[in-house]
Amino acid sequence: MTRVLMVVSAADKLVLADGSEHPTGYWAEEVAASHETLTAAGVDVDIATPGGRTPTVDDLSLSDKGGVDPEDADRFRAYLATLEAELGKPLSLDDVDPSAYDAVYIPGGHAPMADLVDDPELAAIVSATDSAGRPVVALCHGVAGLLGAKGEDGWLFGGRRMTGFTDTEEQQGGYGDAIPYSVEQRMREAGGVIETGEPWSDTVVVDGTLITGQNPQSSVSTAKALLARLG
């Protein structure tokens, strides 16, 4: 059976640019819709976090304050409830053998900006997966989890086409200049070839085995792009 490692941030707060702390977590749709799309196609998905810590869902991702329709929020909440065991006791990244998986999938929410961006175990997993020619997938702020992977000449993904949560969406989404850094600018500065769609559009960029989605609205399409690659 095809196996995918879904790496979920375990951070529950984000230190903003002014030094204050803001509650955060993974974005419900990005985990729920991605997981559901993959498993419905017969893929076996394992969930892992740094240190095997239980991840926290961002309350905004289940609220109209976060731009989420109440019916969608109820659907995501119900699906996440079916993952209670997996989310409650995820694998620890330092126990993961990347060769056991056909792909790595990193959903977002602002939380990856706090703990996945500099996690050495994740960087090693991503590097091993990419070097083996297997897909590496990142969605929205999950692209922060790619930034720690280094190659011989700098960033492992330098020169590759990709997308991620845009500065425009950051401004429109409420954080604006309060974020500690821009994932879009970090990718550009590291050498990524950034391609963005309209704000909040369903946008996926595929460059060989690197698959990236722009925002929560791209969750299902990002998972389907991975299925197409694996298929």
UniProtKB/TrEMBL annotation:
Protein origin, superkingdom: Bacteria
Keyword Lyase applies: yes
Pfam families xref list: DJ-1_PfpI
Keyword Ubl conjugation: no
Region (Disordered): 49-68
Keywords: Lyase, Stress response
Domain DJ-1/PfpI residue range list: 91-227
Gene3D superfamilies named among the record's database cross-references: 3.40.50.880
Family to which this protein belongs: Belongs to the peptidase C56 family. HSP31-like subfamily.
PANTHER family to which the protein is assigned, alphabetical: GLUTATHIONE-INDEPENDENT GLYOXALASE HSP31-RELATED, PROTEIN/NUCLEIC ACID DEGLYCASE DJ-1-RELATED
Name assigned to this protein: Dimethylallyltransferase
